[in-house]
Write a structure and sequence with these properties.
The complex is a heterodimer. Chain A is 32% helix and 25% strand. By secondary structure, chain A is of the alpha+beta class. A 5-stranded antiparallel β-sheet of chain A has the order 3-1-2-4-5. In chain A, helix 3 packs antiparallel against helix 4. Chain B is built from 3 helices and 6 strands, in the order βαββααβββ. Chain B has a 4-stranded antiparallel β-sheet, covered by helices on one side. In chain B, strands 4-5 form a two-stranded antiparallel ribbon. Chain B starts with a strand and ends with a strand. Classes of the chains: A alpha+beta, B alpha+beta. Chains A and B meet through helix 1, helix 3 and strand 3 of A and helix 3, strand 4 and strand 6 of B. Strand 3 of chain A pairs antiparallel with strand 4 of chain B.
Amino acid sequence: MAVSDRIAEATRELMLPYKNYHIYLHLIYKPIEKAKFLTGVESLRKFLRIAKERGFEQKRRDHPIAFELILTLPRKNKLTLAEEMRFLKAMREILIDAFFSPELLNYAEIGYDIKYSAKPVGFKAFIRYSRDGEKFYRIDVTRVAKRLLGDLIEE
Amino acid sequence: MILLKSELLIDIDKKNLKEFFERYIFVQKYLKFKLLGYEIAETKKGYHVRLIVDLPYKYSDKDIVLLQLLLGDDWKRATINYFRVIHNLDNWNVLFRKKYRIFKAGNLFKLASKEKCIGCLHGDVS
């Protein structure tokens, strides 16, 4: 990092000491990696039916909107790798507690963004899901998340 | 003076910032926003650009999606953002600093991508 960037970083630390973590877990679709057309599989529809029977089904189509767990975590200090692992595990627990099948987690990805601010934002966690991509439902899981991650919140 | 501050998040999927700078200069010339702060980070595929701008008037969320697209945002990301906006979903604009893939039903996490900051300027971004 250049000197000017280090100065910019230090200025930001002074002006905007809070790092508000916005952590997202999306359910993403898993494409079928290899498509081997055997004799008798004359249509894509038939191929997809066989793939589904064998468990290679594409899990969902509308990435990444149909299912998300979103968590907002205010911090003064950056999360350490061990703490990151804790929230990843906590998100897994929240989902399994809510209604989620553990195998579906293999089709998910977790990412986070940090928004800097002068004041901490409130801690919140919610699940957003849709079955048809038209109507969206929201489940507030703030209490469960607070129980699991309470000591990581620096409000 | 009231600041109409907005955050623009642009995901560039190629290892070249020249086009982004060209776009920025052109768009800025016509839309006349003021740059308050920026952060440019390198990713595996390209770059993540975060701009804090002071807009000349209040932009709607749809305008922000379009502005990001004009500045070279990934079109797939823009489509998904637009979808989120028209369905009134909050927390719609996100650019991951770090991303993990999940294995073994959530018992194993593997780092999929991570940003590396290559330049930043934090002005009045509070």
